[in-house]
Every structure is written in C-alpha cells, then in structure tokens.
Amino acid sequence: MPRRRTLQKGVWSLLAIAAIAGTAALAAAAPPVDSSPQAAQATPATPRVRVWWPDDLYPPENSEAEALLLRQWDGFRGTYRSYDLEVRRKRASGLGGILPTLRAASSVATGALPDLTLMRRSDLVTAAAEGLLVPITDWVPADMLDDLLPGGQALGEVDGTLYGVPYALTVTHTLYRPSAFSEPPTSFADILREQPAYLFPAGSGASAVVSPTLLLQYLQAGGRLSDDEGNPTLDRTPVMSVLQYYATGVAQELFGPELLDYTQSTSYWGDFVSGEADLIHLDSSYYLAHQAEVENVAVGTIPTQNGEPVTALNGWMWVLVTHDPDRQDRARAFFSWMMRASQQAALTEALHIIPSQARALELWQDQTYAAFAAEVIGSGRIVVSELRSPAAAALQEAFADVLRGMSPVQAADDAIASLLE
C-alpha cells in the first residue's frame, strides 16, 4: 500500500508540472505585434490592458494601413500613460485561433486570457454559449450603441443578451456595368428582361450548405426555415417564387448548372474585369479592396422578387473576456479609444471594411460608397446560422435540381417532402 500511494503521488506531481508548463506556454504564445518605446517603458506594476487582434484585420506589413493602426495604438499609450497596452496578434480561426485559445486558456491558463478581443459573429455565438464571454449591456457607453448603423447591435446579441459591439461590418451586393442595363437591376423581372451575363456564388461550400444569394432571396420573399416549434420547414409560395425565377432563367439560357461551381466571388472576378460578365455578386470588403481594377461600373442590390433590397450582414465584434472590474474599466478605455469616430473611420476605410457607427461612415472619403452602404445595411439580415440549417440544405438541393432542368414544381415538392421524413 505505501508503494501504491507513492506511485499515485508521483503521477499527480507529473500532472501538476504538465499543467504549469501548459499555462506558461499559453502565456508566452503569440508575442505582442509591436515593440514601441512606449510599451518598453512599462513596468510589471503598471496596470495592463491585454488585447487580442485577429490577423484578418491586421494590415499588410509596412503598409500605410499598418502605420495608421500602430499610430492609434501608440496614441492610446500616450494618452493613458498609466496603462500598459499589450496587443497580441491571433489567427481568426483554426489551430491557435481566438476561439480555440479562449477555450484552452479558460480552464488551465486564465492569466493568459485577454481583456478584450475582436471576434466574428459565428464565433461570438459559440463563445457566448460556452460561457467564455461577459455580457456587456452595462459596460458599453449607451451613446455608442445609439450611433450604431441599423441592425448593427443585433450582430452582437445572442438570445437577447448583448455580448459584442460591432467594429467592422461587411455586406453583400452586386456590381454591374450600367451600359448593359436600361435601369439598375433590382428585381427578378429586371434580370429576365435584360438577360445579362450574370455570375454569382450559386454553389454550397464548407461554410454554407446553401448559396447565400438563394437564401436571401427566399427569406426576402417571406420564407421561413423553421416553424413555430423549431422544426425545419420551407414555405411553398416563397420557394416556388424563387425556383420559378431560376427555371425561367434556365429556359432563357441565362442560368445553368455551371453556376454551382462558384462558391466565392473571387472565382469569377477576373471574368468581370475582362468584360465577360455584366453583373456579379460580391462582398463589400472584396469590392473595396479591388474597385480600382474596374471602371464605369456601379454597385447595386441583390435581385429579389419585388425589387426590395436585401443583404447578408456580418462583421467583427468587440467582446469582453475578463470578469475583473478593474480590468474591465481599462478595457473600456481602449475600446472607447478605438471606437472614436475619426479613428474608426480612418482605419476601417484603410482596411476596406465598413465602420459600425454612422458618424464614422459619414467621415469616409469615399462618400459615394458610404451612402450606398448606409442604405443597404438597413436591409441587412444576419444569416450566419441559417447558412447551415437543414431547411437551407433542402432549398439548395431544389435550386440545384432546377438548374439541372427539373421543373420548379417537382423540385419544390421534393424539398418540402424531404423535411417531413
């Protein structure tokens, strides 16, 4: 028996050493992105603000955008001299990503956790469900919420509780050549009348079981993906409206099964630049980053049954991780600094993303696009979760069948029946 107790004691000692080593490794991972003199002057006793910044929002090295971002960080250090700002770059997803690291550190290395970070909507929902985030209704300055663009606050909410404040937004829209249309194409009727060379991401992919375009058109027509009891469902009238549109387009040789090969707008950007397409769908970030490559074009809204605008709204949210009141106060100081309208306007325009605050968008140099974005965001729908729903998968299958030649009636019947099995 003594030998057995000795063995157990040794095992527990090894486990303790391993846990400490893991904690140290997490704390040492991802060194700060900058080594400015202001940061170097901080002492261990200086109150710290720890922030994780996603790589997806970090500009190319040695670019003007990077210089702008670093100046904003240094401006905070110069203004809040009693704080030590520590910013660490993190992958947005995958191994070493923000959400996986939060999970790992929350149980074995809480000292390595950030006070504040930026997170996509899909990750925010997951992190909130797992108890990794702090509700922030009472933490956020009320006037800041009042200035958010329409629908922005909903991006940070989960079941009515506010967990995030949007910093940067993205929307989906069209890009077209006005010379190919008698008027801006906004409805199904416009497309069928003008019959443009038209490309959009019609296929499903790893992150979505349905084409975002198809889903938005169905939802805008009044369709549901679940009934009152939460069961997956498709409403026949909206399904038929959308499928009949595509069936007519197939008959006109406007649409075909080859569209299913496209899952991202980057796949056909070259076709639009070269003039082989008159109308395409793309997200705002890609357009803003590449708009200089094309001339004599215009942005528009995704065609719908009645021509009413609709878009997919997504973005990056500030989320609070620390439960410590003092650290929360320091984190709020940095959050408020980065959300100053002038700073948010300058950085988001440099990063090719839409700011979440109306005052910041009004300060953009590209006021033509800013006005369009302000208008289309009001019709935004948050469809991140719906893109993976069973009903959406059935809708996509019906759509694919129509593009391959099946009648819309048969395709709709099959899709609706599949959800009743």
Relative helix content: 40-55%
Give the structural class. alpha/beta
- Specify the number of helices: 18
Radius of gyration, in Å, reads 25 Å
Please tally the β strands and state the result: 14
Low-confidence stretches: 1-31
Distance between the termini: 60 Å
User: Main beta sheet, described?
Assistant: 6 strands, mixed
Cross-sheet strand order for the largest sheet: 2-1-3-12-6-13
Strand content: 5-15%
- Mean pLDDT equals 90
Shape: globular
Structure, described:
The longest helix has 27 residues, at 2-28. The protein has helices spanning 2-28, 37-40, 64-79, 98-108, 121-129, 142-146, 152-155, 188-194, 212-220, 236-251, 269-273, 284-290, 325-338, 341-351, 358-362, 367-377, 390-403, 408-418; strands spanning 48-54, 84-90, 116-120, 157-158, 161-162, 164-170, 172-176, 198-199, 279-283, 298-300, 311-312, 314-320, 354-355, 380-381. It has a 6-stranded mixed beta sheet. The model is unreliable at 1-31 (pLDDT under 50). It is of the alpha/beta class and 421 residues long. The chain starts with a helix and ends with a helix. 40% of the residues are buried. The chain is globular. It is built from 18 helices and 14 strands. 44% of the residues lie in helices and 14% in strands.
